[in-house]
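Annex B. Sample input.
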Amino acid sequence: MLAAGSRGDYQPVLALAAGLRARGHEVGVTASSDYVDDVRGTGFAVEEVEVEALRIYNEQVAPGMPPTLPGQLDRLGRWAAELAPEVGRTVRGLWPRYDAVVSTALTISWAAVLAAVDPRPHVTALFVPAFPSTWGDASMLSVREGRSLTNLVAGRHALGPGRSLSTVALQHLGPGLSRAQRLRAVRNLVTTPTFLAHSPQVIAERRVMGRQIRCTGYPFATLPAGTRLSARTEAFLDAGPAPVYAGFGSQGSATTRDALRHTVSAARSLGHRVIVLRGTGLEEQGWGDSVLFVDGEPHELLLPRARAAVHHGGAGTTAAVLRSGIPQVVVPFVLDQPFFGRRVREIGVAGDPVPVAGATTGRIAASLRRTEDAGVRRRAAEVGALVRAEDGVARGVDLIESTLRRHR
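Annex B, continued. Sample output.
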């Protein structure tokens, strides 16, 4: 399993890895130095990429992130190029020791290049739909609801910067390849069997760029037996009506802190209590007894007891809120987050997304007010039941096994 990215990128990979292990497979997982302990704690063999990828991202990539998707992809491409020497060393070293490979969006190019030299069965699991499409419900690169040529134009415009991200391995290893191997590597990039490990309730299963996109459902990890909310959180929940959950991950930028501050103020202005995820550095004093700050609680246990959730729109958080059956408001920052913010509103389970650049207390309050609508709450409960019925791990493992068997 060629994992890479943030904690949210590792969690579904580890869930799929656990599903493969339960079927009798031996599984290894790559991890940058930031996440070695997390992966090792799950009992999988760890293939360490000796670089603190998340620290570099937070220090060099996130600050001053461009507002447009092509600019964001270009910056991510430069980040990937900086990590390339260590990634290449790790992947080249592990390659001979494994019978098959599952890559993700950030690692498909490495597997494509090495498979051109030393073929292995290879399948890619994506957690966001990153192919250009005319359809707004089938691609994070689309900008409009429904079907529009504008979506295809926007997707193709993003492909230029995105290509640098997907071909960094070819650029890094290219001098050692023959012309035939380079051509095979490029072909592998566009023909590797791929599935979307997310819910078909929010991403449409369509034919995109010649591929039939299949959604397995999001691969949620099984919660360990005996897991509970903290006593402090339980006491807060029991002391009053269901609160709004507010969480924007662990980025400590001023923009993130401001967005969280506006969110807490908006919820309180509507008379709601609030549970706030720490990590942004938002000051905790002065909010009163109606606001509880937490370091982290299992989404499976906390979200169903919340009134609504306000979050950044990451793939995993969006899926977790959908599964909980509560409405949501997305305050998107970058990359796939605007797509998920738009889609949850389009399927009727959320208020209007509030892009972080224009986030104010008033705008977030207006969107939160929309989540009180009886139709939105009913639709959120309906979608929640559908998502809970999806077994993203089992379906994902089924597709991995069937694809790899065909390509042995």
